[in-house]
Amino acid sequence: MELRYGQRDELGRVDRLNPSLASKTVIAGGMNGGGRSHLHPKIPRTLSVRECARLQKFPDDYILTGPVARQFTQVGNAVMPVLSAKIALSMYKQLYQ
């Protein structure tokens, strides 16, 4: 699939990452698909589960389980760990300080 940087396919399901910009959101598909794939900015391939997890700021030692499709769903449904930690800290301060 030939797409320029930042360009999305006609169905809106695949886009090529622009190395100069932030990535688009990693979105999980449902039972009938509907997710979004990202194409590597320079190599003609989609990103791996681990690369998508890195976009979401998961540490490389974070273990994703199950079949690859399920792992993509886990990453796409997740709130970034960094954001989750900040929200949890804010809630803790509001409740206990």
Describe the structure.
The protein has a single domain (14-96), classed as DNA Methylase, Chain A, domain 2 (Alpha-Beta Complex). Helix content is 34%, strand content 6%. The protein is built from 3 helices and 2 strands, in the order E-E-H-H-H. It has a two-stranded parallel ribbon with strand order 1-2. The longest helix has 16 residues, at 81-96. The chain is elongated and about 55 Å long.
Question: What's the layout of helices and strands?
Answer:
Blueprint: E1 14-16, E2 37-39, H1 49-55, H2 68-77, H3 81-96
Which features characterize this protein?
97 residues; mainly alpha; DNA Methylase, Chain A, domain 2; two-stranded parallel sheet; 34% helix
Quick structural overview:
The chain has 97 residues and is mainly alpha-helical. 34% of the residues lie in helices and 6% in strands.
